[in-house]
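Hypothesis: this fold can be encoded by more than one sequence.
Test: take the structure tokens below, design a sequence, compare later.
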């Protein structure tokens, strides 16, 4: 579902100034960088880290939703949830494939996820307690993902940018189906309205954290922007999200659980309450309410699906042998 403002840009060793200058000139001219092009090692590494985190997030992101497919209130909602989950797995596969063009294998990336070395978006380490959580994840979680991902369609790395075009179209459906489910709840009984508000109360802050630390605390943002890996800073994206979300919340009678949220007429920005960064970092470091469950579920799925991979490899080997004969 998302990349998060965690990616760093590593130092490029000295003696490569010419390469850096040539590369920057291509970026500044708006050219796309393709897999076999010359690129600074730091650019390649930064992209591998960002894209693998992104792909992992797409895959792990379905776990909070999976529990509610069999409990969806109607057949239509169940179909929506299943379609969305299928999309998210597809996004993961696209992005793993795009990352492989940088010289890292999918096995290596998946291995890093399973060992706990690689990160994925912190938001998926929170529990989904009832159906309203699914509506809120679509409306706000995928809504935040769209803010992060639309600029990636213009990212300087060609395979990533092209993969994101389809991903964003599907994310738009995810956001709409979530909002539609939310509208239904908010037009329902007092109990349903309370469920909707309660889910927003629990998810608002984890979703605000999805954009990553404030710009002042995100020293790598500058290089990411310079190389057009990122086209907006974390705070700019958070701001866009609040701007888009506040009127939608108002329309359906949802109160944003932030007493300090207010529009500043002079700056044209929304000011918001302090984000609990201690909570954010503790979740990123593995101490969130569901980190353990998510990784355990992922490891179990990997182990239980091993026979599929083996069968596919055996089949491919048999086909290759036949073709050779
Ligand atoms: Fe996605
Ligand atoms: Fe999505």
């Amino acid at each position: 579902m998302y990349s998060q403002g965690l990616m760093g840009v590593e130092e490029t060793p000295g003696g490569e100034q010419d390469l850096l200058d040539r590369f920057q000139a291509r970026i500044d001219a708006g050219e796309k960088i393709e897999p076999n092009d010359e690129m600074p090692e730091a650019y390649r590494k930064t992209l591998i880290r960002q894209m693998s985190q992104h792909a992992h997030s797409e895959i792990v992101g379905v776990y909070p939703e999976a529990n509610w497919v069999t409990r969806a209130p109607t057949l239509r909602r169940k179909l929506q949830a299943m379609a969305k989950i299928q999309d998210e797995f597809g996004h993961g596969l696209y992005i793993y494939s795009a990352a492989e063009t940088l010289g890292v294998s999918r096995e290596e990336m998946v291995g890093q996820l399973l060992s706990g070395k690689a990160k994925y978006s912190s938001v998926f380490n929170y529990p989904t307690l009832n159906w309203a959580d699914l509506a809120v994840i679509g409306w706000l979680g995928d809504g935040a993902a769209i803010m992060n991902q639309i600029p990636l369609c213009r990212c300087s790395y060609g395979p990533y940018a092209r993969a994101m075009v389809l991903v964003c179209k599907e994310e738009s459906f995810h956001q709409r189906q979530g909002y539609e489910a939310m509208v239904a709840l908010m037009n329902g009984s007092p109990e349903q309205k309370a469920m909707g508000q309660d889910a927003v109360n629990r998810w608002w802050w984890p979703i605000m954290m999805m954009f990553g630390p404030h710009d002042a605390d995100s020293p790598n943002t500058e290089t990411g922007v310079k190389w057009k890996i990122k086209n907006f800073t974390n705070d700019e994206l958070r701001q866009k999200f609040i701007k888009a979300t506040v009127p939608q919340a108002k329309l359906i009678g949802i109160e944003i659980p932030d007493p300090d949220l207010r529009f500043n007429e002079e700056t044209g920005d929304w000011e918001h309450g302090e984000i609990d960064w201690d909570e954010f970092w503790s979740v990123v470091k593995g101490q969130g309410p569901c980190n353990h469950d998510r990784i355990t579920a992922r490891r179990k799925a990997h182990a239980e699906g091993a026979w599929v991979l083996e069968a596919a490899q055996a089949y491919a080997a048999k086909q290759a042998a036949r073709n050779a004969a």
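Residues 18-324 form a domain with the Ferritin fold (CATH 1.20.1260.10). Residues 1, 58, 88, 91, 167, 171 surround fe (ii) ion (ligand 1) (CB under 6 Å).
Hypothesis status: open.
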